[in-house]
Amino acid sequence: ALLHLKYTGIAEQLLCCLKSMDSFPLCIKLVLLSFFVFITRLPGTKQDDDSSSPCSTPVTVEDAKAELQANGIAINKNYMAFTLAEAKLNFKNLITMEPMNFSSMVKQTVSPLGHVTRIESCYPQEVPPNQNFCTRCSAVTTLPNNIYPNTFNTIVCDPDTEFCGSGNQGKCTEFGEDQDLLKYDPTAPCDQRFKEEIYHLKLCCGCKLI
Asked: CB under 8 Å to 89, separation ≥6 — which residues?
């Protein structure tokens, strides 16, 4: 019924124009404009102001930094970076405090979430007899590209050493602190494309009794 009324209204405007030839060009433009507005309001027709449409503007690192600042999320450049170039410029080995040697990172692990940890070097601890302490490793962990920041300076446990303590009664465990990050969703509207996410930044390896 609604479609019928719309089409009827447009037809009446056209008949009116035909009866008054002096205003024929102007009326034709009016009818065409009315028809265009009607078409754009049909169900399923894409609207320019549709707030549910995905954001078409590509996100940049600067966008992410501005969003982090707006949300009051602090970033320490000694532990976090947005690009590998930033990491190479600012990261130091957190055990020796010497500049990080990225060229020596040959051993790596990949978590089920796609977090890639590249180990720079490992440091066995001096232990008394009959003890088995955990080996700490300086490493860089990289998260997926839609996380900001996504590169972290970390201390992890040597993946080749699992158990520790007297009689291997403990398990090498990584400890640290939670860090707020931003996750980018390319399917979301522009004002909703960043969501806060928590990442556990690993800063220590110790022996935990099991």
From this structure: none
